[in-house]
Amino acid sequence: MAREAPFAKMNGLGNEIIVADMRGRADRVSPAAAIALNADPAMKFDQIMAIHDPRTPGTANYIEIINSDGTMAQACGNGMRCVVQALAAESEQKLFTFETIAGILNAEEHADGMISVDMGVPRFDWQEIPLAEEFGDTSRIELQIGPIDAPVLHSPSVVSMGNPHAIFWVDRDVWDYELDRFGPLLENHPIFPERANISIAQVTAPDALTLRTWERSAGLTRACGSAACAAAVSAARIGRTGRNVTVTVPGGPLAIEWRTDDHVVMTGPAEWEFSGTFDPETGAWTRDRQDVA
Ligand SMILES: N[C@@H](CCC[C@H](N)C(=O)O)C(=O)O
């Protein structure tokens, strides 16, 4: 087996993604490789989306999602759009089905280049998010937050989009808050036994939100697709918006539809930056010659 695997460096609204083509090989991207790649300023990323052969022959490609600290994530909306664009560039295929550790996902590339991903159904039960203690109603929960001196950041909406999310509602501009300071504290709050992605959200219209996210295991990002879905369903659940909203993240807008069949569909762009090959064990990488200016 060749040691090097092809990759495409991409982004989804500024969420930095490496799409790694691991098809036809039995190995996986090691946590050490992820950490080494992220330490290189030219490759710094939020998630690696590793495309593997189907786990059962004849079924969907298996996508492994690896955070920049080498840990696994169950969902990555922006990364899935990057995977779709990378695979769509190989063929005429427009409709895709993938398997992740959180289940089966369907996606589609539209004629205008925008990509929709069916992110599945939101989970509101406290054990499925998961939370460390029982809450009957997770649409807003009261948290004991000791060292954080921001009184508004106490009663988030919590939800799983495959991965755990907490959405803190604010009335002021989301940029008024020091998410880089609160994010790591809230991510590791004992109520979240598997930690959580932490977002600050402001409802700006009955069909619009602004959102900033501190991602579990990746830190501040310019976009988090699963957080946009989590914020959209949470806003609708507490009666602040309808079920079709535009969620504007630092990288730009995402359209989120919470369908009547309970599935959440996210639509947005993906962007290719450059390609190369890398060693999935060590993270050593080379940029493709034709991409070098
Ligand atoms: N960027 C992603 C979410 C990434 C996963 C997250 N860091 C986690 O560990 O749950 C997205 O676009 O959804």
Automatic annotation (TrEMBL):
This protein's pathway: Amino-acid biosynthesis; L-lysine biosynthesis via DAP pathway; DL-2,6-diaminopimelate from LL-2,6-diaminopimelate: step 1/1
Annotated site residue numbers, Could be important to modulate the pK values of the two catalytic cysteine residues: 165, 215
Record localization: Cytoplasm
Domain of life: Bacteria
Keyword flag Transferase: no
Catalytic center residues: 76, 76 (proton donor), 224 (proton acceptor)
Pfam families: DAP_epimerase
UniProt entry keywords in alphabetical sequence: Amino-acid biosynthesis, Cytoplasm, Isomerase, Lysine biosynthesis
Binding residue positions for substrate: 15, 47, 67, 77-78, 163, 197, 215-216, 225-226
Record note on quaternary structure: Homodimer.
Cited function: Catalyzes the stereoinversion of LL-2,6-diaminopimelate (L,L-DAP) to meso-diaminopimelate (meso-DAP), a precursor of L-lysine and an essential component of the bacterial peptidoglycan.
Entry similarity comment: Belongs to the diaminopimelate epimerase family.
Name recorded for this polypeptide: Diaminopimelate epimerase
Organism field: Allomesorhizobium camelthorni
Gene name tied to this protein: dapF
